[in-house]
Amino acid sequence: MLSHHEIAALLSVGDQESAIRALDSDVLALRHRRLLKVDRRDNGTMIVRLTDSSRDLARRLRRVVASGNSND
Questions:
Q1: How far apart are CA 55 and CA 60, in angstroms?
Q2: Any idea what the CATH number is for the domain that residue 10 is in?
Q3: Dihedral (C-alpha) 23, 27, 28, 29: value to the nearest 10 degrees?
């Protein structure tokens, strides 16, 4: 099960690559679960990307959040 911090980190990456300066515990946990890919560029920048399975998970989470907000 993902923590709320890990879910927030997953959703913050979104469908595009995100550059990060340091690997925090949430990113490391998501990488360990194979939900994020972390690549290091030649200039030392780390790029975080969703995997196929995490992209699907993020899409489903957004759908649940959107449907919950429409009931307010």
A1: 9
A2: 1.10.10.10
A3: 160
